[in-house]
Amino acid sequence: MHLPSARWAIAAAILVVALAAWSRVRPSNTRDWTPDNARLAWAELDGDSVVVHNVRNARYRTADDYTVAWEDRAYDLRRLRTAWYAVEPFEEDWRGPAHTFVSFGFDDGRFLAASVEIRKEKGETFSPLKGLLKRFELIYVLADERDVVTLRTSHRRDQVYLYPIRATPAQARAMLVDVLRRANELRERPEFYNTLTSNCTSNLVRHVNRIAPRRVPWSPRTLLPGYSDALAYDLGLIDTDLPFAQARERFHINERALKHADAPDFSLRIREHAP
């Protein structure tokens, strides 16, 4: 065998072995998780009633210094009224990289947030490349809204936009129930996060499309979720009659979130300028 051919054969053999090993990597719910990811949320659904277990309610001193409380919260689904879409761009000059999450509002003033994220092990930080290589498990964080918002506005100092979704109470309920069932599935069968195919935004799009098939078509703006609010606006999913630029300004919540971070009615305060 000629030397160049031998090198190609060896390289091909190494690649085959590496791919075989990679294909055998399996997700797990048993690792040394960071405290904020230590528990998986799950729900007991019974008709109009639901009890959500392990609702995260962390209080942050810094983004990395916090005290976590885990709570069981009961909800009456007949009292669910609204759904909200949040976008957190990571860059000011280019909005493409971003995190997105949803929140559900009840007529008693309570809100339940759902954030699809990587489930971090101690010492891990997010990397888009590692997110393609089965390095992170997927987690549905169900949380008090103050937790997920103030982490981003007060401590990470990212900009957050919180948009009302044009949805009936029945549609909001259907989406929340779908989110809760997905959380239950991940508790039983862990999955890997994937930067392109199973990330924060792609999972939310699947929930929307299960309720209203093909409501959100494929778009580069879901791969670059910092632009996903513009896509939602163009699809008529954001409940506003304002031009998009004005709507984006109206639903920018950082100033209100910082001002009312400790207010007992935090979730209502950050919506003071919403319709």
Overview of the structural elements:
Strand 7 and strand 8 (111-119) form a beta hairpin. The longest helix has 21 residues, at 3-23. The protein has 9 helices and 10 strands. The strands form 3 sheets. The chain has a 5-stranded antiparallel β-sheet. The chain has a 3-stranded antiparallel β-sheet with strand order 1-2-5. The protein has a two-stranded antiparallel sheet with strand order 3-4. It has helices spanning 3-23, 145-155, 169-188, 200-211, 220-223, 228-234, 244-250, 254-259, 266-269; strands spanning 42-46, 49-56, 59-62, 65-67, 70-76, 80-89, 98-106, 111-119, 137-144, 161-164. Helix 3 packs across helix 4 (200-211). The chain has 275 residues and is of the alpha+beta class.
